[in-house]
Design a protein that fits this description.
Helix 3 packs across helix 4 (197-210), helix 6 (242-250) packs parallel to helix 8 (280-288) and helix 8 packs across helix 11 (352-370). This protein has helices at residues 2-118, 121-142, 147-170, 197-210, 228-235, 242-250, 261-267, 280-288, 300-303, 311-321, 352-370, 377-385, and strands at 173-175, 186-190, 215-217, 237-238, 254-257, 292-298, 304-306, 328-330, 337-340. It is of the alpha/beta class. 65% of the residues lie in helices and 9% in strands. Helix 5 (228-235) links the parallel strand 3 and strand 4 (237-238). It has 12 helices and 9 strands.
């Protein structure tokens, strides 16, 4: 009995131990599962946190990109109108420059063509002068009359020839010729065109009317012209000094001078009376108390023209050499009307500068009153021949 009990007890203990082990193993398994679940939860939390961080970074990046895009769009919206405006202004300025260049090139080409076809025109005047010299030489050496009488007859023929030429080719007429005295001294101040055809016509007109020869003050560069000695001798043209001019006036003669000189003749493009500091004629007039008579010829710069293309180049060459090497062309048969202004008498106590300013202003008024603004070669020709059209 005791053994049986002992055996049962042992069996019971084994059973209890086995149950305990099973319970322990179940507990351990439960803890293991719990730990696994916790680990999984932690991993999931970490993954979700990582995803959140990633998403937040991506969102932040997207926000930054959106902001950049918006800024770029705003900047583009602000700059594009400026760019368009700048582009348009650049295009307009380029178009204007191109148009101006084309217009300038066209006018330059037309002027060069005009010069090519009419460059001999100015030389015709020089040829006529040489013919006049031959006529004077012929009368001087072959006439049986006294030298003074022979030269007067020769000059009479020369004057008639110039009057016929200017009247036929240019229809030259004179307004206010009564202002030039038939006797006594006077200083004739005239506007210098590219070629002095109008002044030659005036000399002829005065000689035909009164038998008086105008003593003409010319530039020293006339000495460079072949035959200049005969021109000075027969036509009383020379670079007279102030003393010589005063002597001529005191002897009761006429003295003609163009204060503008070569600069006015070659480089004036708008009939502007610009005499600079030239006051010699005023000093002579004050010294001899001689009246000054301003003279201007309408359309003289349409009859003969100086090359306006590369004008600065020609001006620079002239200032460097003092030679009239500017291309001149023309000889167009436009109507020339010579206007003789009212004599200007020097006032007592007046300075040479004051008298010069008064004469210059009177000359400019004479130009403004008689020269049509915007006149061209074409319009001047139409004016003369419109009665025949």
């Amino acid at each position: 009995q005791t053994l049986e009990n002992e055996r049962r007890r042992l069996i019971e203990e084994k059973r209890v131990i086995k149950q305990r082990k099973e319970i322990e193993s179940k507990r351990l398994e439960g803890e293991k599962l719990k730990m696994q679940r916790e680990i999984q939860i932690k991993r999931q939390e970490e993954l979700s946190h990582t995803d959140e961080v990633t998403n937040s970074e991506e969102n932040m990046k997207m926000d930054v990109d959106k902001r950049n895009v918006m800024n770029e769009t705003n900047l583009r919206n602000r700059t594009e109108p400026r760019k368009v405006h700048l582009t348009k202004s650049l295009l307009n300025s380029s178009k204007t420059r191109a148009t101006s260049l084309l217009k300038h090139c066209k006018s330059a080409l037309l002027e060069i063509l005009l010069w090519y076809f009419t460059w001999l025109g100015p030389f015709n005047l020089l040829l006529l002068l040489y013919v006049n010299i031959l006529m004077c030489l012929f009368f001087e050496f072959f006439s049986e009359e006294a030298e003074t009488k022979a030269m007067k007859k020769a000059f009479s023929m020369v004057a008639k020839m110039w009057s016929s030429y200017t009247s036929f080719w240019h229809g030259q007429t004179f307004v206010g010729m009564d202002n030039i005295p038939r006797e006594g001294p006077a200083v004739i101040v005239w506007y210098h065109g590219p070629m002095p055809v109008d002044y030659l016509g005036l000399i002829a007109e005065v000689f035909n009317r009164d038998g008086r020869v105008i003593n003409s003050v010319v530039d020293r560069c006339l000495s460079n012209v072949p035959g200049s000695g005969y021109i000075k001798k027969y036509f009383k043209c020379d670079a007279f000094s102030k003393v010589q001019c005063a002597g001529l006036l005191e002897s009761g003669q006429l003295v003609g001078i163009a204060p503008g000189g070569s600069r006015e003749a070659l480089f004036d493009a708008s009939y502007g009376v610009r005499w600079g500091k030239r006051v010699g004629f005023a000093k002579v007039a004050l010294l001899t108390s001689t009246p000054i008579i301003p003279i201007f010829t309408e359309n003289i710069r349409e009859a003969y023209c100086t090359m306006s293309t590369a004008r600065k180049l020609w001006s620079t060459l002239f200032e460097m050499t003092k030679l009239s090497i500017v291309p001149i062309y023309g000889g167009f048969p436009v109507k020339l009307t010579t206007h003789v202004g009212t004599p200007i008498t020097p006032h007592k106590g007046e300075t040479a500068d004051m008298l010069k300013q008064r004469v210059q202003m009177t000359m400019q008024e004479l130009v403004n009153a008689n020269q049509k603004k915007g006149q061209t070669i074409k319009s001047a020709l139409i004016e003369r021949y419109e009665t025949f059209v």
